[in-house]
């Protein structure tokens, strides 16, 4: 028998795990084998309460029958159909359901397969828009320090997390960054939106003075999640919107985390009262049951690109799986659950209890800041000297072993439970986290 045909052992070796310490994990594996409701279960059957909605994405909880059945039904009807110069009804229906939820006027939907693809798609649409309206010199993209917009080269370039960039050399040209809004000296332990920092949006004026009329778009997260929960100061996004309008710059929101109820509204734009020109989404769109992302634009952006192009293809961009039938079915079922169970309303109702529970950790050893907004909380720990991230990773591992899943980024614990969370779940999460912080102090 050819060596290539021999069966290989089913072990941990073949899977190169993403964003993981592969060497540590494969010596000390922590595996999840099943999920239901608010919990995962290990192969041994031990319950692990989900404090992170998977990766910010399972907003309706796990194993929802309505979503599972929609995927099964669609797989039996049609497993795949291309959307290049062809269409299938379910993709159009999914787009219409998304457009019902986005802010008024932002109802043209381009499907992707992930948040990273959504970020790069949004940036390309912004460049295409500026060219179509006769502003071809606008090729510069502005992000923000500590911003996260996925791992494609576009989103990674506009993003501002150094660890995501340092291995890969040169990024995209013509990119600059606004300062981040984290100001612990003035805003530590704020509940909700900080009072101080709106003036940081004025730094866009400095970039305009430097780069002139070459800026195409500014991309920010309404609430920055993956960098450790940075909540925008009061008035910050309003000022950023004003400056973008003043200088002919598109404003892009990365709503991959903040979309679909996480902030107690359909999208962060609604909760924060400031609408963008383009918004990205993924994660909660399908409850993570099938990978899917999307970019929604204003009618003006769409019509400028489409009507301003010669006959034929207007945007030379797309993915084999854009609007995939199974993903579309999952999205339709997920958004129906979102409406029927009022997941944003549930999040908003429990938010005060969530806020108080998170801030109850203030006196725990090594806690230097706590930030929260919607059903998100960030608990920042003092790093150990010479070992950044080690303290939080020890907390992560201890919490998992005690039956609660949390997420850490650097020395920040980030919590974002499914929106079906109830008070006993909150108590268990925070209690286990408090015990872990004390145990490793």
TrEMBL record:
UniProtKB keywords: Aminotransferase, Pyridoxal phosphate, Pyruvate, Transferase
Top-level enzyme category: transferase
Gene3D superfamilies membership: Aspartate Aminotransferase, domain 1 (3.90.1150.10), Type I PLP-dependent aspartate aminotransferase-like (Major domain) (3.40.640.10)
Names of required cofactors: pyridoxal 5'-phosphate
SUPFAM superfamilies: PLP-dependent transferases (SSF53383)
One MF annotation (Gene Ontology) recorded for this entry: pyridoxal phosphate binding
Lineage top rank: taxon: Bacteria
InterPro entries xref list: Aminotrans_3, Aminotrans_3_PPA_site, PyrdxlP-dep_Trfase, PyrdxlP-dep_Trfase_major, PyrdxlP-dep_Trfase_small
Coiled coil (residue ranges): none
EC number in record: 2.6.1.18
CDD domains in alphabetical order: OAT_like (cd00610)
Annotated GO biological process: biotin biosynthetic process
Pfam families: Aminotran_3
PROSITE patterns associated with the record: AA_TRANSFER_CLASS_3 (PS00600)
Family assignment from sequence similarity: Belongs to the class-III pyridoxal-phosphate-dependent aminotransferase family.
Protein name stated in the entry: Beta-alanine--pyruvate transaminase
Organism: Muricoccus pecuniae
Upper classification of the organism: Bacteria, Pseudomonadati, Pseudomonadota, Alphaproteobacteria, Acetobacterales
């Amino acid at each position: 028998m050819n060596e290539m045909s021999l069966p290989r052992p089913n072990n941990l070796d073949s899977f190169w795990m993403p964003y993981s310490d592969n060497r540590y994990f494969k010596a000390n594996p922590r595996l999840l084998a099943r999920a239901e409701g608010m919990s995962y279960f290990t192969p041994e059957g031990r319950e692990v309460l989900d404090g992170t909605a998977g990766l910010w994405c399972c907003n309706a909880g796990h194993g929802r029958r309505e979503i599972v059945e929609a995927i099964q039904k669609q797989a039996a009807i049609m497993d795949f159909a291309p959307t290049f110069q062809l269409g299938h009804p379910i993709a159009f229906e999914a787009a219409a359901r998304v457009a019902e939820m986005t802010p008024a006027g932002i109802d043209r939907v381009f499907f992707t397969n992930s948040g990273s693809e959504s970020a790069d798609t949004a940036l390309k649409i912004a460049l295409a828009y500026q060219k179509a309206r006769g502003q071809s010199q606008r090729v510069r993209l502005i992000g923000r320090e500590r911003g996260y917009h996925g791992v494609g080269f576009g989103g990674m370039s506009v993003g501002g997390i150094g660890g995501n960039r340092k291995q890969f050399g040169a990024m995209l040209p013509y990119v600059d960054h606004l300062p981040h809004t984290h100001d612990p000296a003035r805003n530590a332990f704020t509940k909700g939106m900080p009072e101080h920092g709106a003036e940081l949006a004025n730094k866009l004026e400095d970039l305009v003075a430097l780069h002139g009329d070459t800026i195409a778009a500014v991309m920010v997260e309404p609430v920055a999640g993956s960098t450790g929960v940075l909540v925008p100061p009061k008035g910050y996004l309003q000022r950023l919107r004003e400056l973008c309008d003043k200088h002919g710059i598109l404003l892009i929101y990365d709503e991959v985390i903040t979309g679909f109820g996480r902030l107690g509204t359909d999208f962060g734009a609604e909760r924060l009262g400031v609408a963008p020109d383009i918004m990205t989404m993924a994660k909660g769109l399908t409850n993570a049951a099938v990978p899917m992302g999307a970019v929604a634009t204003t009618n003006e952006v769409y019509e400028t690109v489409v009507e301003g192009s010669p006959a034929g293809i207007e945007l030379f961009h797309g993915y084999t799986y854009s609007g995939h039938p199974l993903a579309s079915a999952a999205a339709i079922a997920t958004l129906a659950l979102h409406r029927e169970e009022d997941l944003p309303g549930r999040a908003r109702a429990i938010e005060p209890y969530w806020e108080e529970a998170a801030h109850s950790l203030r006196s725990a050893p090594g806690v230097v800041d706590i930030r929260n907004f919607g059903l998100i909380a960030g608990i920042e720990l003092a790093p150990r000297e010479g070992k950044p991230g080690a303290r939080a990773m020890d907390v992560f591992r201890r919490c998992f072993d005690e039956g609660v899943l949390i997420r850490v980024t650097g020395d920040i614990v980030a919590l974002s439970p499914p929106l079906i969370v109830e008070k006993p779940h909150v108590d268990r999460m925070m209690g286990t986290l408090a015990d872990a912080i004390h145990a490793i102090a």
